Amino acid sequence: MILTVLPVLPPDLRPMVQLDGGRFATSDLNDLYRRVINRNNRLWRLLALGSPEMVIRNEKRMLQEACDALIDNGRRGRAVAGSTNHKLKSLSDMLRGKQGRFRQNLLGKRVDYSGRSVIVVGPDLKLHQCGLPKEMALELFKPFVMRKLVEHGHAPNIKSAKRVVERGRGEVWDVLEEVVQGHPVLLNRAPTLHRLGIQAFDVVLIEGSAIQIHPLVCAAFNADFDGDQMAVHVPLSEQSQREARELMMANNNLLSPASGEPIVAPTKDMVVGLYYLTLERDGMVGEGRAFGSFEEVMIARDLGMVDLHAKVRVRVTDEDFPEPPVAAGVTYGWSELFPTTVGRIILNSVLPKRLRFYNDILDKTKVKGLVSSCMMASRHDPLLDDAQRLLDLGARFRETAEVVDRLKYLGFRYATVSGITMAISDIHIPLEKRRIVSEADEETNRADRNFNRGLITEAEKSSKLVEIWTHAMTEVERAVKAELDPDGPVHMMASSGGIRGGFPQIRQVAGMRGLMADTKGRLKEGLPVKTNFREGLMPLEYFLSTHGARKGLADTAMKTAEAGYLTRRLIDVVQDVVVREIDCGTLQGILVLRPDDRSVASTLANRILGRKTVEHVVDPETGEVIVEAGGEIDERALKAIEGTRIQVFRVRSPLTCQARYGICSDCYGRNLAAARPVELGAAVGIVAAQSIGEPGTQLTMRTSHTGGSAADAQKRTIWAKDGKTIEREEYVAVDITTAEGGLRRVEELFEARVPKGAAIISHIEGRVELLPGDALRVRVVSAQPFSEPVRLPDGFAVLSGLEGKSVAAGDVVA
């Protein structure tokens, strides 16, 4: 294991280039090799001369250092520097890291039949299409075009065909049109954070130099049209083309592999258009008129007899309605007149018949829900066998792709028709703002006086100021919202969800910016920004604002690498977790508890949908078996479960899977991206790692969106013990810049680290008492004969107002 002969790298991998002026640019390795050779030769000479032992020992040490520097410079002692005082790149450095031999050249090769260009929106494209510039397509498909030219007799041989292509004669473009038919291409946007970062599309040839992509696939690629570039790859073999068509086509990838929610849904201006279309207004032209069918309404609309937002009535017929519709709790029977608006009839005319009648204003969340319900097929029909179910599912994906395309068209059309635009005069500063700010100033002065008198500590004063200004920001936001015209452009954009941020962003423009965070993420509670962008900021306020804005930009650059590294580590751990068998036969599972808090009720569906049960799920009141042991909890079963009082479920989980290698299909449950049970051979470990890594990378961008406005207010509802009546509603400050949150917390959970500053939690139920002494001590006295005194660490304090109050086991005390 000891090197007696040092291997020398081939000269091509350590080149020496002559520069202008006779000087040479050489690889660092040549310098490192030269040092080894010089020291080795000197050692031979000294040994031949019979030099003293001390001199020889020193020369051997220097030779050892030269060899160490060649293999890994800087590992032992100080790194060897070159003539320009930079660390020389050793053999290890050439292999290591992203630019090293492995990741740069062996794992990441450059490929032929690929291209790259800027992307622009293609609003007329179908979901499965992309627009490819003609010149780029000709270069990418050159071999296919040459073959077709020979087949059609436009050229006698391949050499002549190549000349025909290079001259760009008329028949070349006709042949290119023929070649690209049914030949998908792959589009990729870096960074590829999850599976949907590479998708297949059919080619539509276009003029120009930019690649056109469908506006609805932007979410999957995390792309926008501010100069982003995408790469195109051509699958060559029949097998790779079939794989691209069946697995990677954009209209087959409508659901997120991480959550199973639709990743393709109208956003931004499309949502504003749909919101405008479904608005209901009083006193419009044609209000109260009755029509016999959808068709009659359309004709009247085209003739200008009814307004888009007019309240009208339409006859309920089986041609337009799948079943009698319901409005305001009233069911309207066949041939009765159903109240709705002209815009909503236009919306329903593009929906599949089974989704009608949608009679509500559409915002961003409801649009996503509409796409979700379109995916919900009759696949839960027990009469269908597995093969029919898969066919039904394929048809449902195709239908959903068509529906989102129609919604996209409607959204763009009515965003244009609405003429929504925005001027600075549309933003009104509420008159209440001055009163709210002056009241907050008074409370701040009171807190300052109490602190100066020694009545409260600095930590209490700090949290009090955050509470005061957070409440003030919430009040100002409410006043701004009340001041806006409900039919005005600003309110419409914020209510529809068409803009990022919504009303908190408008509060910064028309109300007040509020509390800012410094570069370390701490709130500047003593210096809130009381003005807004409409009025203009004071010099000091502007200076405070720059902290957060600069931090957002720095974090975007710094933490993205951190998130990428977390993804790499996760992938490394789980790359061998593959579905190896159908059923491992385990009788174990994990317990899933129904959440108490009403605000997180949706998480029950997220946790049990698509899982298989370990035991029968039985309604405790009727004794009816909802799901049998080993059965899948599908949408129908979930609906039945949500209507019962079942509190605990035991479901199969990868954590308890007993498969010898990888995991089994039954313990994993449903493949969320395909809405069917996971297949053998699925790399579920990689999907799990990407599902955490992808949002983790997006999470690091979050601070830049808020522009350093650090605190936000969340409404918290405290329910009474009976679970029916509300005890009180309060607003709590939420700091999005805490070190405990976000990516660091995710790392803590994966590496099972104890979090810093963990709260002290009561283990028993009882009353809180403060114990006198040199340090702050707390005791919880139980009704049972048992008490537990705890010494608080430095910097900890008992929650205000808790002394003498009762706490339950698991409550936070300090």
Entry summary:
The protein has 814 residues and is α+β, with helices and mostly antiparallel strands.
Characterization of the model:
With 814 residues, this protein is α+β, with helices and mostly antiparallel strands. Helix 1 packs antiparallel against helix 2. Strand 25 and strand 26 form a beta hairpin. The longest helix is centred in the last third of the chain and has 36 residues. It has a six-stranded mixed β-barrel with strand order 3-7-4-6-5-8. A four-stranded antiparallel beta sheet has the order 26-25-24-27, with no helix packed on it. Among the domains are: 96 residues, no CATH class; 139 residues, Barwin-like endoglucanases (Beta Barrel), CATH 2.40.40.20; 104 residues, no CATH class; 56 residues, RNA polymerase II/Efflux pump adaptor protein, barrel-sandwich hybrid domain (OB fold (Dihydrolipoamide Acetyltransferase, E2P), Beta Barrel).
Helix content: 25-40%
Through-space gap between termini: 58 Å
Low-confidence stretches: 378-383, 703-708, 710-724, 727-740
Largest sheet: 6 strands, mixed, barrel
- Say how many strands there are: 27
- The overall pLDDT, averaged over residues, is 86
Shape: globular
- Within the CATH hierarchy, at the fold level, what is the topology of the domain at 114-252? Barwin-like endoglucanases
What's the total helix number? 26
Described by its quaternary structure, the protein is single chain
Strand order of the largest sheet: 3-7-4-6-5-8
Task: Give me the Rg, rounded.
Answer: 34 Å
| CATH architecture level-2 label of the domain at 114-252 | Beta Barrel
Supply the CATH class of the domain at 114-252.
Mainly Beta
Percent of residues in beta strands? 5-15%
Sheet/helix structural class:
alpha+beta
